[in-house]
Write a structure and sequence with these properties.
alpha/beta, five-stranded mixed beta sheet, UDP-N-acetylmuramoyl-L-alanine:D-glutamate ligase, 14 strands
Length: about 375
């Protein structure tokens, strides 16, 4: 794989992401990153609970009794799949319009840094996420009642139908993410198709459309299937790419009944078989899956897989998947090969979890070089 990284660096140095025009929506969250206290040493210092398993044991011990769990806020930041993905892609210099729940009628303070980089339309107040971070994952506790107002009608009221038509017709990529947290997203998709997208002239070179369901486990199976079936309709006008993390991929395969329940529950189905089955059922341009230590995709019925630059103790994990999505789609938009796009995605997320920020385009190239030299 070493030659791949050198080839990727050469490719990226000849690309200009500032030529890209992107449209991303429609969620928005204020993320509060939180550590969970194991032992309090003094007023300023504590030992944190490092794994979800250890927290589960602490909670299990309280069953039938009670316990106190101390939470320590670390930072408040831009949250939501859309804003994080947007922020990461903006670091590459692409021209982006973001439409979503960033504060209404005025922008929430946490999103001012995003508005400095991209054009924003804010259509509703954001949700709020308490992101409990651990070395082996995170627990996101969401408060999202305001997101019920993210509707097609509200979208048009703020953006305008003609303006939205122009934004969609001119974009190189339309990303609509966090379906699970937006209860009216399926209806919004249907109305976008009916009132705008089907009325646009078809292009010989279709733009990309990126979809992220964002952990659909809490939604009813019939809703998930309905949403997934809409992707085929979008694929007539876009090159649709569905992004999933490992858990989501197995959950969706279970909903679609692609393998027997026991094999999926125990994750005995290989990533390749899983990826291929999802791709063939959905009949879209690509399906990409990103576990923690690798990533894979099927594009044009060909399977690709690459190992990633795993880090045992990340500085920040909330948003790592969105940064992978941003990097992967940046690679696809820059006309890289799918395996190169996987490396670009993992490099973007790898930089993010180590530095608690998304890389600028030159920093991304430098990170890939350091990865090649085994310096990370």
């Amino acid at each position: 794989m070493e030659h791949k990284k050198l080839d990727l660096i050469k490719e990226l140095k000849n690309k200009n992401p500032k030529l890209l025009k992107l449209l991303i929506g429609f969620d928005g969250f204020v993320d509060e990153i939180i550590h969970v206290v194991d032992k309090r040493i003094n007023s300023d210092n504590f030992k944190r609970i490092e794994t979800i398993e250890d927290l589960a044991k602490r909670i299990q011990k309280a069953s039938g009794l009670s316990t106190n769990i101390e939470l320590v806020p670390v930072v408040k930041k831009i949250g939501g799949n859309g804003p994080i993905m947007c922020n990461a892609m903006a670091s590459s210099g692409a021209l982006i319009t973001y439409v979503g729940a960033l504060g209404y009628p005025t922008l929430n303070d946490v999103f001012h840094t995003l508005a400095d980089k991209v054009k924003v339309y804010t259509i509703e107040n954001p949700g709020h996420s308490d992101a409990l971070e651990f070395n082996d994952g995170k627990l996101i506790l969401g408060k999202m009642s305001s997101l019920t107002n993210v509707t097609y009608e509200q979208l048009i009221a703020v953006v305008g139908e003609d303006n939205l038509k122009d934004l969609i017709s001119e974009t190189d990529m339309f990303a609509t993410v966090n379906w699970s947290m937006l209860p009216n997203m399926t209806d919004l998709w249907k109305k976008l198709l009916d009132k705008i997208i089907t009325k646009l002239p078809k292009k010989n070179h279709r733009p990309f459309m990126f979809i992220d369901l964002a952990d659909p486990e809490k939604r009813e199976n019939v809703e998930i299937i309905e949403a997934l079936n809409l992707l085929k309709e979008f694929n007539s006008y876009f090159r649709v790419i569905l992004g999933l993390n490992k858990k989501e991929a197995y959950d969706v395969a279970n909903v679609l009944d692609l393998f027997d329940d026991a094999s999926l529950k125990n994750m005995q189905v290989s990533l390749e078989d899983l990826n291929q089955a999802l791709y063939r059922y959905l009949d879209v341009h690509a399906v990409v899956i990103h576990p923690v230590d690798r990533s894979c995709c099927v594009v044009d019925d060909v399977f690709y897989e690459e190992l990633g630059p795993y880090v045992e103790k990340p500085q920040l994990t909330t948003g790592a998947g969105d940064n992978f999505n941003a990097g992967f789609m940046l690679g696809m938009l820059l006309d890289l090969k799918p395996d190169q796009a996987l490396l670009t995605g993992m490099s973007t997320s790898g930089y993010y979890v180590r530095n608690a920020k998304s890389p600028e385009f030159n920093e991304l190239i430098e990170f890939i070089g350091d990865w090649h030299k085994n310096l990370i």
